[in-house]
Design a protein that fits this description.
The complex is a heterodimer of chains A (350) and B (308). Chain A is mainly alpha-helical and 350 residues long. Chain A is globular. In chain A, the strands form three sheets. Chain A has a two-stranded antiparallel sheet. Chain A has a two-stranded antiparallel sheet with strand order 3-6. Chain A contains 14 helices and six strands. By secondary structure, chain B is mainly alpha-helical. In chain B, strands 1-2 form a two-stranded antiparallel ribbon. The radius of gyration of chain B is 19 Å and the shape is globular. The chains are: A mainly alpha (350), B mainly alpha (308). Chains A and B meet through α6, α12 and α14 of A and α5, α10 and α12 of B.
Chain lengths: 350, 308
């Protein structure tokens, strides 16, 4: 993993790093599905997985979970977790839809209000976690239910907001300069989060907190404020994902983004971030998102059931985890085999 | 009293709600709807008994919803092929135990973090089930309510869950194995130095949770003539919420099953209570979330006071 890179190892370490292996898996997936899922139609045009349209569709479908995974990375780096992202996505989409359709706000004002809602939702998580020092897992489990409940209450469990103007659905359905319009937004967020985590003292303190919260406090870093920032950022970007989701489907429903929290966590962990915090990279997360997206969409183009993709994601996650402990288990086993036959002896002085 | 403040406050909240319902909405206590609601929640109670000891052991299992669906569909398929119910019940329990053992092996054997392991197994079982079954309904047929009348079936299911609760609660309190769970959850290294085997205890708790989930699945499968496989019901978070509201500390080593029982009833009663009190039921989820937050905030405020 990049965090443990030291000067003495160099290229070998890069080749053995989690990110590189994941990148190789991604390339293998892509080549496999290119071979299986690409055809030429009667007019000699490429259709299926290999076509540019299909590639853009894969990107389009993975932007929302990608955004959630991006901001989940700093949260998990600090040793926390945010189960409420999917609910914040749904809640802010409903706030947006309701303000626009029922309260007749202009679209930009409604979108801004949705982003503020998301940031405030993240702020509630941050307040409970840092000020009351409650475990993030439980706090965000509670807000997971609370925000989804707000979305259901605002829609009375049934309302659907739809019929948004083309100037808004543009960001979810059209193209800018030939690429899907949500892609520049995603790239912007990705670069910003990467810079925050890898090129600022803020980012360094996220890792330090995940590694040793007490030690970081004694080093003079305001732990509470840094952790709060991670959760507020998570709420804000979840709301952004909610807007993009609404624009892509041209509808806001109370169940938008159900289950996205676990998909995002899967991508982050697959990307090599330790669930205990302290270790992980943003580019690893991006590779994790891509690996999951190519797998599930590629199977679709290869005429395989979509469920197989979900299943293989789970298997991939177990294998990735297992691979991380194999060296440890092996060395333990070797050392126990070397010492097992011998009856208690004074330790050799080497 | 002071030691069990959390349990008593949850019991108090539950009691207050039941009294309020008795005064303002006595129809809540009509026998048949009440019995149906309790039957609905009986499987959740059984899983909560297993989940409580996992969390006391400082682990977590979010794959119970998937295990529950897999066991339910498998046993319903056997019932559809006219296997006797007496054979299907142990098979369902055994299947659950095997799935639990797989989680336990990854967590206790390989030392992987339980939240990620069970996230992965949750996704794997869920998608596998969806792939194999494509959401087709399974016809349980004559095995509904174990072939008894509805009321006897409901009473059997409720009685089973209460027996499991009482046995588990007494075992956690009085058996050596039960105390081991608290010891491991409070401090695994100290427990190891005291001669316990934390990894074995953790493994067994995962197997036990799996077995209880298998039992809950069959008790759920016989409640209707057809079983709809639904691994996305959010059962895992419902169970964890009940356990946490009931006063089990997520950091391990603390809590008991009586509190979990009160927490489960409190959360389960909210939505029907809203209906009877004339509040729109779509507020149910928000209020459940607020109760979870209230329970942990109460803990947080108390901790803050004791610290300063």
């Amino acid at each position: 993993m990049a965090a443990s890179n030291s000067k003495s190892t160099g290229w070998k370490a890069v080749l053995r790093s989690h990110e590189f292996i994941l990148f190789a898996v991604l390339v293998a997936e892509w080549v496999l599905f290119y071979a299986l899922g690409t055809h030429r139609n009667a007019r000699g045009m490429t259709v299926g997985f290999g076509s540019l349209d299909a590639q853009y569709n894969i990107l389009r479908h993975s932007v929302e979970i990608g955004l959630l995974a991006l901001v989940m990375t700093p949260v998990i780096l600090t040793g926390g977790i945010d189960l409420s992202v999917g609910s914040v996505l749904g809640f802010s989409a409903i706030v947006f839809g309701k303000l626009w359709q029922d309260a007749h706000w202009p679209i930009a004002a409604a979108a801004l209000a949705a982003l503020v809602t998301g940031a405030a939702a993240g702020g509630l998580n941050a307040f409970l976690i840092t000020w009351l020092r409650l475990p993030p897992l439980i706090v965000t489990l509670g807000t997971y239910s609370l925000f989804r409940g707000f979305a259901e209450a605002l829609t009375r469990g049934a309302d659907i907001f739809t019929g948004f103007p083309a100037s808004f659905t543009f960001i979810g359905q059209e193209r800018i300069l030939g690429v899907p319009a949500q892609l520049p937004i995603f790239a912007l967020v990705a670069v910003a989060v990467w810079l925050l985590v890898h090129r600022t003292t803020f980012g360094r303190s996220f890792r330090a907190i995940g590694f040793a919260p007490e030690g970081t406090r004694y080093a003079g870093i305001p732990v509470e404020r840094r952790v709060a920032l991670a959760y507020i950022l998570s709420g804000l970007v979840s709301a952004l994902a909610g807007l993009i989701y609404t624009a892509r489907l041209n509808q806001a429903t109370a169940d938008a983004g159900t289950g996205y929290e676990l998909a995002a966590i899967t991508a982050v962990v697959l990307g090599g971030t330790s669930i205990f915090g302290g270790i992980g990279t943003v580019h690893g997360t991006l590779l994790g998102v891509a690996a999951v997206a190519v797998l599930s969409e590629g199977l679709f183009y290869a005429d395989q059931p979509r469920e197989l993709g979900g299943m293989l994601t789970g298997v991939l996650l177990i294998v990735a985890l297992g691979a991380s402990v194999v060296p440890k288990v092996l060395s333990k086993w070797r050392s126990s085999r070397q010492t097992a036959p011998s009856t208690p002896q004074p330790p050799a002085s080497t | 009293m002071k030691q069990h403040f959390r349990e008593w406050s949850v019991a108090g909240a539950l009691g207050a709600m039941l009294v309020a319902l008795a005064i303002f909405a006595p129809r809540f206590y009509e026998a048949q709807p009440l019995l149906s609601r309790l039957t609905d929640d009986a499987p959740t109670l059984i899983i909560a008994c297993g989940m409580a000891s996992i969390i006391i052991c400082r682990q977590i299992d979010i794959s119970v919803g998937s295990m529950f669906a897999v066991c339910g569909v498998c046993s319903a398929l056997l019932l559809e092929h006219h296997w006797p119910i007496a054979a299907v019940i142990p098979i369902s329990i055994a299947l659950g135990a095997v799935l639990g053992a797989f989680n336990g092996w990854l967590v206790a054997g390989l030392g992987l973090p339980s939240i990620v392991v069970t996230l992965a197994t949750m996704v794997t079982w869920k998608e596998a089930l969806r792939w194999m079954r494509q959401g087709v309904l399974v016809n349980v047929g004559s095995a509904q309510w174990f072939g008894l009348s509805q009321i006897h079936g409901q009473l059997t299911i409720i009685a089973t869950s209460l027996v499991i609760l009482v046995i588990s609660a007494l075992a956690m309190r009085h058996l050596a194995m039960g105390r081991f769970v608290y010891a491991v959850g409070a401090d695994a290294e100290a427990a190891r130095l005291a001669g316990l085997r934390p990894r074995l205890v953790t493994f067994l708790m995962f197997v036990r949770l799996g077995a209880l989930t298998g039992l809950a699945a069959i008790l759920n499968a016989v409640q209707a003539a057809t079983l709809q496989p639904n691994p996305d019901s959010g059962l895992e978070l419902k169970v964890i919420a009940a356990v946490v509201v009931g006063g089990v500390a997520i950091s391990g080593g603390r809590g008991n099953l009586w509190g979990v029982f009160c927490g489960l009833l409190l959360l389960a009663c909210i939505t029907p209570a809203l209906v009877y009190l004339g509040i729109p039921p779509y507020w149910g989820k928000a209020i459940q979330g607020a109760i979870i937050l209230l329970a942990v905030v109460a803990d947080g405020v108390r901790n803050r006071k004791t610290r300063t």
